[in-house]
Amino acid sequence: MAARPAARVSVRRLAVLLWIALPCAALAQGPEITLRGFQDGINHWQSGHGTTYPRYRPDQYRQIADNLVLLQRRGGGWAVNQDPQRILDDTARAQALADQATPGGSFDNRNVYTQVAYLGEAFARSGDVRYRDAAVRGLDFILAEQIDSCGGWPHSVPSRTAYHGHITFADDVTSGVLTTLRRVLREPLFGFISAGQRARVQAAVAAGDACLLRLQVRQDGVPTIWAGQYDRTTLQPAQGRKFELPALVTDESVGVVRYLMSIPDPSPAVVASVNAAMAWFQAHALTGWRLETFETDPAQFQFHRTTVDRRLVADAGAPLLWGRFHDLHDSSVLLANREGERVARFDAIPRERRTGYHWYGTWPQALITTDYPRWQQRTAGTGAR
After folding, report:
1. Angle, helices 90-99/61-71, rounded to nearest 10 degrees
2. Helix or strand run (H / E) with residue 283
């Protein structure tokens, strides 16, 4: 008879412990931290390795953050085109440990700054100091690699090609880094950084903002948009891969404009820069053409396999379209084949590059219809319009 009250007390105590533990367990695994910034790298990884390997769920942020810590190099950078959701077997873990001694890292495909942001959030949720320390190392790497001549960031370090060392706007390198650095200064979850590192971040943002304004391409003195990359010495637009000729680049210029519009109290110079870029987007939209993707015979190329092809079709009701690249001097659409030869027509690009690259798109459309009008209302009275 005496054992029954004791049993009831144990059940009650167990219920209380479970009531406390269950929310903690839920916090440890979720809610998920966004993986959107990793998607480009994940797509590249899966292009070379398939999609059937085991992966962590998006809400398993502790395991994903553990992967980021393991994959980080000792100098603070990360290799490009990894899948942080990949469940590593013993062989892969051993290789990752060995790769930690590799110097440098790549900012290509939205790399490094995305890891820093993820680890900062993982530390804020878990309190695991490994995530904090890895984020600090990544931030130090970012700050160390800012290019002194202007304030942008390179594609990759150490440079292994003619274009890796350029000040890079392609794939949102410089605008993406700056966006994350502003998060570091603004958001409480990054309160773990030291006063000294915070001061360095503030200086890097100031230099980066000035770089964006300085490198906005001018035609006959009129600001337009930005090139994909710039020579770090001459600060002139430079070539990327062979088929990426020096040109105005529409897609990533949208990213630059979004970044500039995110500045809470923009200077008149920033306002003028945004207005000039938006005027260029509106003036150089292509009308009456639709980019059509259609099924056709499968083809296997060195870097991708495709079952489709693409063509431009006359269509008076088509949405506005822009070229990925536009000429530096007259803003005409610039097209090239893989050998780097400029061609006059889209159908003159071989199918491998027609289907393996986005030569046309609607990138500025949301800016024009939604974001820019809202920004104009927010900044009314700031600078000359």
Report:
1. 50
2. helix 268-283
Peptide bond into 58 cis (omega under 30): no
How far does Cα 135 stand from its chain's mean position? 17
DSSP 8-state symbol, 312: E
Stated length of the chain = 385
Q: Give the residue among 79, 142, 134 at the shortest CA–CA distance from 109.
A: 79
Instruction: Name the β-bridge partners of 222.
Output: 219
Give CA–CA dist 81/366, Å, rounded: 28
CB 223 within 8 A of CB 217: yes
Q: Which residue has the tokens 């979850």?
A: 189
What's the rounded Cα separation, in Å, for the pair 159 and 113?
Answer: 18
pLDDT of residue 302: 82
Degrees, nearest 5: CA angle 39-130-90? 65
Answer whether residue 32 shows pLDDT above 80.
yes
Are the CB atoms for 84 and 38 separated by under 8 Å? Answer: yes
User: In 283-334, which ranges are E strands?
Assistant: 289-300, 305-314, 322-323, 325-326
The whole-number pLDDT of residue 12 equals: 47
**d(Cα 11, Cα 16) in Å, to the nearest integer?**
9
Give the angle 102-130-180 at the CA atoms, nearest 5°.
75
pLDDT band at 382 (very low <50, low <70, confident <90, very high): low
Helix (H, G, I), strand (E, B) or coil at 358: coil
DSSP state of 291: E
Instruction: Provide the whole-model pTM.
Output: 0.89
- DSSP assignment of 49-109: H-S-S-B--TT-HHHHHHHHHHH--TTS---SS--TTB---HHHHHHHHHHTTS--EE-TT
Q: By three-state DSSP, how is residue 235 classified? A: coil
How far are the Cα atoms of 181, 192, 264, 266 from residue 186, in angstroms, in the given order? 9, 12, 10, 15
